Amino acid sequence: MTGALIAGGWGLLGGSALLLGALVAWFTRLPQRVIAAVMAIGSGVLISAVAFDLMDEAYRQGGSTATALGFVAGGAAYTAANVYISRRGARHRKRSGTAEHASQPDAGGANAAGSGLAIAVGALLDGIPESVVIGVSLLDGGGVSLVTVAAVFLSNVPEGLSSAAGMKRAGRGAAYVFGVWGGIALVSGIAAFAGNLLLAGAAPTTLAAVTAIAAGAILAMLVDTMIPEATEATHDYSGLIAVVGFLAAFVLSKAGG
Predict the structure, then answer these.
(1) pTM given for the model
(2) What is the pLDDT of residues 109-151, one digit of tens each?
C-alpha cells in the first residue's frame, strides 16, 4: 500500500500541472508563442520517455509480441476516443487560450461551456495513460521515472490553461473552473495509485502490455494534439525546441540509470 500511495503522490504532482495552467489562465494572459514553446519542449520530452523509458521497459518485461500488440492497441484506443471527443468541442484542448479559436467554437454561451467540459474530458483521456505508467514504473522497487513525471507535467500545463480560458469566457466562476481542474488532478493521482495497486504481482507480459498500451496512447496524443498546436505558433523553431526537450530527457534518463 505504501508504494501505491507514493505512486498516487507522483501522479497527483503530474496532474497538478493542469491546475497550475488554470491558475495562469485565470490571472494572466500569456502569449501563445510561450505556451507553444512549452508544448514543443513537452513533446520532445514525451517522445524520449516513450522511446527510452516505456518501450524499452515493456520489451524488457514481456518481449516483442506483448509490446507490439499493446503499443498498437493503445494508439488505436486513444485515436477512437479522441475522434469522439474532438467532434464535441475538444479538438484544440491543448491550444493556448490566447488564440482567437483556441478552445471554443464561439466566445460564450452553452456551446463554449460544453466545449470546455469536452476539453476537460479530453484531459482525462490524455492524462490517465500517463498516470497509470507512473504507477506501474514503481512496481519494480526502483524510483519513479523523473523523465515521465516531467513529461506529464509539461504536457498538462497548456491543457489546463486552454480549457480554463475557455470556461472563463463562457462565464464560469472560479469555484467551478478550479473545482473541475482540481478534480482532474485528483483523478490523475488515483489512476497512478490504482495502476500500482492493481498491477502489483502481475505477470511480466501483463505489465509489458499495459506499459506499451500507455506508450501507444501517449504517442498518438502527441501527434494528434500536442505537435500540431506547438508548430502552429512556433513555426520553424518548434523542431529545434523539441530537440532540446528530447535531449534533456535523454540525459536525465541516462543519469538516473
Answers:
(1) 0.80
(2) 444 444 556 666 777 777 888 888 888 878 776 677 787 888 7
